[in-house]
Amino acid sequence: MGETNKISVETVPCYIPSKSSPKDNRYVFAYTITISNIGTVPATLLSRFWLITDSNGKTQEVSGAGVVGEQPYLKPGESFQYTSGAMLETPIGVMQGKYILISDDGINFNCPIPRFTLSIPRTLH
Predict the structure, then answer these.
(1) Mean pLDDT over the full length of the chain
(2) What is residue 5's predicted lDDT score, i.e. its pLDDT?
(3) What is the CATH number of the domain that holds 29?
(4) Is the residue at 124 inside a domain?
(5) With contact defined as beta carbons under 8 Å apart, do 92 and 55 qualify?
């Protein structure tokens, strides 16, 4: 990948108690993602893949074109931020995945989305 196609990903998860129902094993989380082009070539985000795992080991795979209905085009130094959500059957889980992008010079490349934790407040120390 080198310095030409470099993308950074920052994640900020948040529990949404108003949409959750612990008695029904329904825990809703939002997450805000910032995708930044720290390389030297513009790139378009084509698709995403998520692996979501709850604390019982149950997994969900989510994939599709773009993010939140968009396929953002990122010039060097530009960022794109979006918020989405996930629902778990347990109060703790993890998400990880990848974005697939294509640079202006025609190279498809993967950008890993580092694993992050979804947890209700005061569950993890």
Answers:
(1) 94
(2) 83
(3) 2.60.40.1470
(4) no
(5) yes
Residue-wise pLDDT for 37-92, tens only, equals 999 999 999 999 999 999 999 999 999 999 999 999 999 999 999 999 999 999 99
**Total number of domains constituting the chain:** 1
Q: What's the rounded Cα separation, in Å, for the pair 82 and 44?
A: 15
What is the rounded CA–CA span in Å between residue 84 and residue 30?
6
DSSP string, 7-57: EEEEEEEEE-GGG-BGGGTBEEEEEEEEEEE-SSS-EEEEEEEEEEEETT-
Question: For 95-117, how does the pLDDT look when each residue is reduced to its tens digit (9 = 90+)?
Answer: 999 999 999 999 999 999 999 99
Rounded to two decimals, the pTM is 0.90
